[in-house]
């Protein structure tokens, strides 16, 4: 048997000092049982705790483990992208570090891949240990996204999935930086299938997705796959100005023919506030798109690597 890597596991880590060692152990156990050469790439997304130190130590002992260390926090989706860029395997598996995605599902994914599927995504049938708020917002988000986009993005599916090397290469050719990876993978096409699993509780620590990151993530997803919010702005603007115009006619009519016109400052005030609110909201929506266009236009690299471990010195990723 040649010892070229067949499976590459990509694990983004951000402040996961409590989790990363356990995560490595569980992954190693599963990957050893598969009995084909593999690599596990940890991508440290600018952790401020001991995560990098722990991964370094793991790398010293186990040469199957590779390490990409970002110069700062670039975000979950970018960390996954970088990991993918440096993989060598024929099949690439993306998994969260916190063991919410059980590594034991990987062999099932591999089975599907061997049957010829090019994308095998994990479909959550249950979410243990997530708060009501998280479950509710997640369910609402996936359904809203589905209604808004033309791309068929499966609901309740995270980044936990296996993709074929072909898909990985295609994905690295997508230069976008507001990356919503699950959406992009759906957009790419290929033969896709889901494997159901129940999402566990976080092994330790707390979520690295505070509300602010969740909102950015949702905006990235929607803006990269839909113009509908801009259309809503147009429709709302049109309808409201029509109503305003009708109201104006009524006022003129009253002034000309009825004579006893009211001292109308309360209504005036109300209308001013409503309209200003709507104008600001619409400008905000447009701003979200322009900001992203600006980001793309600058063409900066997606991420900056401080150091690597167990990766050949001059090895360039798919991107570069
Ligand atoms: N993560 C990351 N960068 C970030 C936030 C999260 O690399 O800026 C990693 C994190 O370490 C974990 C995965 O992304 O491996 C998913 O994050 P988390 O479990 O906190 O999200 P949740 O499951 O709560 O949605
Ligand atoms: Mg998690």
UniProtKB/TrEMBL annotation:
Which residues span the membrane? 232-256, 268-290
Q: Where in the cell is it found?
A: Cell membrane
Membrane association type: Multi-pass membrane protein
Which SUPFAM superfamilies does the record match to this protein?
Answer: Nucleotide-diphospho-sugar transferases
The segment(s) forming the Glycosyltransferase 2-like domain are 8-168
One protein family per Pfam: Glycos_transf_2
Q: Identify the main location.
A: membrane
Instruction: State the GO CC annotations.
Output: plasma membrane
Source superkingdom:
Bacteria
Q: Which GO terms describe its molecular function?
A: glycosyltransferase activity
What PANTHER family does UniProt report for this protein, alphabetically?
Answer: PROPHAGE BACTOPRENOL GLUCOSYL TRANSFERASE HOMOLOG, UNDECAPRENYL-PHOSPHATE 4-DEOXY-4-FORMAMIDO-L-ARABINOSE TRANSFERASE-RELATED
Similarity comment: family membership: Belongs to the glycosyltransferase 2 family. GtrB subfamily.
Q: Return the protein name.
A: Glycosyl transferase family 2
What is the species of this protein?
Pseudobacteroides cellulosolvens ATCC 35603 = DSM 2933
């Amino acid at each position: 048997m040649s010892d070229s890597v067949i499976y590459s596991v990509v694990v983004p880590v951000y402040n996961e000092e409590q989790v990363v060692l356990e995560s490595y152990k569980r992954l190693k156990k599963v990957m050893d049982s598969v009995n084909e050469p593999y690599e596990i790439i940890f991508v440290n997304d600018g952790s401020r705790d001991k995560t990098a130190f722990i991964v370094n130590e793991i790398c010293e002992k186990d040469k199957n483990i590779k390490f990409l260390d970002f110069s700062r926090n670039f975000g979950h989706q970018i960390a996954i992208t970088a990991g993918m860029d440096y993989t060598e395997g024929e099949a690439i598996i993306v998994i969260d570090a916190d063991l919410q995605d059980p590594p034991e599902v990987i062999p099932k994914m591999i089975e599907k891949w061997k049957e010829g599927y090019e994308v095998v995504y994990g479909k959550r049938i249950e979410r243990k240990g997530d708060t009501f708020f998280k479950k509710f917002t997640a369910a609402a988000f996936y359904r809203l996204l589905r209604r808004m986009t033309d791309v068929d993005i499966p609901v309740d599916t995270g980044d936990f999935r296996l993709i074929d090397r072909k898909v990985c290469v295609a994905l690295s050719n997508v230069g976008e930086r507001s990356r919503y990876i699950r959406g992009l993978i759906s957009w790419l096409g290929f033969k896709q299938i889901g494997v159901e699993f129940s999402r566990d509780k976080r092994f330790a620590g707390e979520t690295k997705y505070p509300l602010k990151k969740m909102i950015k993530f949702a905006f990235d997803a929607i803006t990269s796959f839909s113009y509908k919010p801009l259309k809503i702005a147009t429709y709302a603007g049109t309808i409201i100005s029509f109503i305003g115009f009708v109201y104006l006619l009524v006022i003129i009519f009253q002034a000309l023919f009825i004579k006893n016109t009211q001292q109308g400052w309360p209504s005036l005030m109300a209308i001013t506030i409503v309209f200003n609110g709507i104008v600001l909201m619409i400008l905000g929506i447009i701003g979200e798109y322009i900001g992203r266009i600006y980001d793309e236009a600058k063409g900066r690299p997606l991420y900056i690597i401080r150091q690597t471990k167990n990766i050949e010195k001059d090895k360039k990723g798919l991107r570069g």
